[in-house]
Specification:
homodimer, Arc Repressor Mutant, subunit A, two-stranded antiparallel sheet, 5 helices, about 50% helix, DNA-binding
Chain lengths: ~120, ~120
DNA sequence: AAAATTGTATGATAATATGCATACAATCTC
DNA sequence: GAGATTGTATGCATATTATCATACAATTTT
C-alpha cells in the first residue's frame, strides 16, 4: 500500500516529488505489481495540486515502465516489477544531507537519531 | 575535500542538486568547518553551468547557515551553530522536518537513525 | 441506457529556472 | 599601486513548471 504522499517546499518540482515517492514505494515493494494507484484526481485533491501536475508525474512513471495507465479504469503498477535498487547508498546520501542540517541547527547526530527513534515509535503524523 | 559534483537530468533544478550535494559533503564531514569551497566560477566552468545558477546554490547554503561567503576571498564552510535556547524543542522540530524528508525519500526513520548513528561513529545498539 | 468515474487533452497565464552578457565591489597578489 | 581573483548584481531571452478552466474518451456502475 502506498503511504501518504507529502510535498515539501524545497525547490524540487512537485511532479518530481510525486514521481520519486511513488517510484520509491514501488521499488520498496509497498506497491505490488498489479496494485492500483490512487486516482489522479484523488492525489490532486488531497494534495491540493493541479490535475495536470499529477498527470505529468504518472506519465513519467509510465515512461519509466513502472506504471501502466488505462483510460476509464485507472493506473496500476506495471507487471514486471523492476528490480529494487540498492537503497543503502540512497540512505547514506539522505543521512549526510540531514547531518548537515543538524550541524547547522547545532544538534548532534546522536540527539537527532534519538529523537527519530521516538518519532518512529508512534503512528505516522 | 569536496567530491566531484555531478549533475543529473532528472527534473531536479541544477541549483538544488548543487545545494544538496554540497550540504551532504558538509554533513558527511568531507568539508570541515572553515574549509574553502570551490570558487563559484570554478563550479560554473567545470560543470558548464551558469554563474548565476551556482550563486543561487551557494546563497541557499548560506541561508541554511552551512556556508559563509566573503567577497573577494571566497566561500567557506560555516562554523557549527551555537546550541539553541530551548534545546529539546529545537531537536524535536528538526526531527520532524527530517522525518518528512525521509518519508519523501522512501526511507524509514529507523533506517535513517541507523545511518546517522553510523555517521556519528557509534555502533548500532 | 444513463450516470459516474477515470484517464487524456488543450489553451491561457504566471512564476521559476537557466543561460548569456556585462558590470561593480571587495580582497588578494605582485 | 596595478592587476588578478572572487563574490555580487543586473537585464534580457528562453524553456520549464504550475495553475485554472474546460472538454473529450474509455470504462465501470447503477
Amino acid at each position: 500500500m502506498l503511504g501518504a504522499l507529502t510535498l515539501q517546499d524545497n525547490g524540487v518540482p512537485i511532479y518530481v516529488q510525486l514521481r520519486d515517492q511513488i517510484a520509491a514505494a514501488i521499488g520498496r515493494g509497498d506497491l505490488a505489481p498489479g496494485a492500483r494507484l490512487p486516482t489522479m484526481r484523488e492525489v490532486a485533491v488531497t494534495l491540493a495540486v493541479d490535475l495536470n501536475t499529477v498527470q505529468r508525474a504518472y506519465a513519467a512513471l509510465e515512461e519509466d515502465g513502472l506504471v501502466t495507465m488505462v483510460q476509464g479504469r485507472g493506473s496500476f503498477v506495471a507487471d514486471p516489477a523492476p528490480p529494487a535498487r540498492s537503497r543503502s547508498a540512497e540512505i547514506r546520501t539522505l543521512a549526510a544531507k540531514v547531518a548537515a542540517q543538524a550541524q547547522a541547527a547545532g544538534v548532534s547526530l546522536d540527539e537527532l537519531a534519538e529523537a527519530l527513534r521516538h518519532l518512529s515509535g508512534r503512528a505516522a503524523p
